[in-house]
Amino acid sequence: MSEKAKGVRKLWDKYKFAALVALIGAGLLLWPSGSGGTRKTADVLQAETAESRDIQAEMEEILGTISGVGQVKVMLTVDTDGERQLAQDTELTYSGDTQAPEDYSRRSETVLVGSGSGGGTVVTRTVYPTYRGALVVCQGGDRAEVKLAVTEAVAALTGLSADRITVAKWQ
């Protein structure tokens, strides 16, 4: 063995555990995650869009029952999207010493309930969207008492302050 090879071997023996930990850390950083907002499945995005439309439709129905409002249309702009964290079944395996494993792998699957077309995902946490503003167009939108009632109702439902809610008269 040459002098250079012996020096490299000596360095390897000295720092092999640090190198192994660094490689495992880099692998974990590059590993695709099924949680959070890193990647959303098409089903989750479609559900969030449908939920947003449902909230606006429900608000229109509720606001329409307020005295003097009449026909009403609502548009909400979103500052941050809501998020659903799905339950994950994670399996972690390694071989070798627990302090310095030789081989390391992680497998994660989304937990599903039921089977077939009736099955669905398990949501562990829901973060609702943060709204940026609201526009409400209604038949009674030119009357001060209607504007006040609608503004207070929208503020209560969305958490928006009154300066971010506009009430206009239906044409």
Secondary structure layout:
Blueprint: H1 3-30, H2 42-64, E1 72-80, E2 83-86, E3 88-96, E4 101-110, E5 112-113, E6 120-121, E7 123-127, E8 130-138, H3 144-158, E9 165-169
Parallel strand pairs: 8-9
Antiparallel strand pairs: 1-8, 2-7, 3-4, 5-6
Q: Name the shape in a single word.
A: elongated
Order of helices and strands: HHEEEEEEEEHE
Helix content: 25-40%
Structural class: alpha+beta
Strand fraction: 25-35%
Q: What is the gyration radius calculated from CA atoms? A: 28 Å
Biggest sheet: strand arrangement: 1-8-9
- Measure the end-to-end span: 91 Å
Please tally the helical runs, counting DSSP H or I stretches of 4 or more residues. Answer: 3
Largest sheet: 3 strands, mixed
pLDDT averaged residue by residue? 81
What are the segments in which pLDDT stays under 50 over at least 5 consecutive residues?
none
Query: Would you report the number of β strands?
Result: 9
